[in-house]
């Protein structure tokens, strides 16, 4: 699929561009899922799919921060129509030969989409690397007709604490969130619009299923407009 490059796009969190503009790192990002990332990938995608199923009528998904198209390919295989946007050209160019969904080079803070033009906005690990998560979520809410699904690393988990001490990219530029952080951001982004929030965490050391407990390594949150 072609990569569409609109004129004018912004920047990620300070320091983050070096984490994702390196073509070698973009290629290694995808390779991780075929190696040590197999179990996390299986558990994360299962949780995200479960949350998307909570949004009835959702078919057209805008993945904000689509990267190499890894999650987009998964959801296309599940029958969803997916469009991606990302700020990293190397990540998008890696996505194309892998059969990723159509994608545009664009800034998550200023989405090139009309109000309610997609069914659902999907953000997987995106908020950790943007300059203003509140603005990005407000934009995600603006363009979505039904709701949004957010996946994020949990700063209260064992993994989140380890990441906070790492100095190499991309982790040096990352800001993990807690469940409470994400819910607070979602409430602010919706500006009084009625909504229903559901969340679970996964990547528990010995338990293969998501739980309604706030300490799993990976958080999944769905927000449905009421």
Question: Mind explaining what this structure looks like?
Answer:
- The chain is globular and about 40 Å long.
- An eight-stranded mixed beta sheet has the order 1-4-3-2-5-6-8-7, with helices on both faces.
- It is about 35% helix and about 20% strand.
- It has one domain (about 15-225): 3-Layer(aba) Sandwich (Rossmann fold).
- With about 230 residues, the chain is α/β, with parallel strands linked by helices.
Give the structure's gist in a few sentences:
The protein is of the alpha/beta class and 226 residues long. The protein has helices at residues 17-20, 23-34, 38-52, 70-77, 89-95, 133-143, 158-163, 179-190; strands at 3-4, 60-64, 81-86, 103-105, 118-124, 144-153, 195-202, 218-225.
CATH architecture: 3-Layer(aba) Sandwich
Beta-strand percent range: 15-25%
Order of helices and strands: EHHHEHEHEEHEHHEE
Overall residue-averaged pLDDT value? 88
Kindly state the number of beta strands: 8
Taken together, the total number of domains comes to: 1
Overall morphology:
globular
Largest sheet: 8 strands, mixed
- Indicate the low-confidence ranges by residue numbers: 1-18
- Tally the helices: 8
Spatial separation of the terminal alpha carbons: 35 Å
CATH level 1 class label: Alpha Beta
**Strand line-up of the largest beta sheet:** 1-4-3-2-5-6-8-7
> Which structural class best describes the helix and strand composition?
alpha/beta
What is the name of the CATH superfamily?
Vaccinia Virus protein VP39
Helix content: 25-40%
Look up the CATH topology. Answer: Rossmann fold
Rg, please?
16 Å
């Amino acid at each position: 699929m072609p990569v569409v490059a609109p004129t004018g796009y912004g920047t990620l969190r300070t320091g983050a561009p070096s984490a994702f503009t390196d073509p070698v790192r973009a290629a290694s990002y995808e390779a991780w899922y075929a190696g040590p990332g197999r179990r996390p990938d299986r558990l994360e995608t299962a949780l995200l799919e479960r949350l998307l199923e909570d949004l009835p009528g959702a078919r057209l998904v805008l993945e904000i921060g689509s990267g190499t198209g890894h999650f987009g390919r998964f959801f296309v295989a599940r029958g969803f129509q997916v469009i991606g946007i990302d700020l990293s050209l190397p990540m998008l160019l890696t996505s194309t030969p892998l059969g990723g969904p159509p994608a545009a080079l664009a800034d998550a803070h200023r989405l090139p989409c009309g109000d309610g033009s997609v069914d659902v906005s999907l953000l997987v690990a995106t908020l950790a690397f943007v300059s203003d998560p509140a603005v990005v979520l407000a934009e995600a809410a603006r363009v979505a007709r039904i709701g949004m699904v957010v996946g994020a690393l949990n700063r209260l988990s064992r993994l989140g604490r380890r990441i906070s001490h790492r100095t190499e990219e991309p982790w040096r530029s990352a800001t993990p969130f807690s469940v409470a952080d994400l819910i607070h951001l979602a409430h602010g982004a919706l500006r009084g619009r009625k909504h229903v929030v559901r969340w679970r965490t996964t990547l528990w050391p010995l338990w293969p299923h998501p739980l309604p407990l706030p300490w799993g390594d990976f958080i999944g949150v769905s927000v449905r407009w009421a």
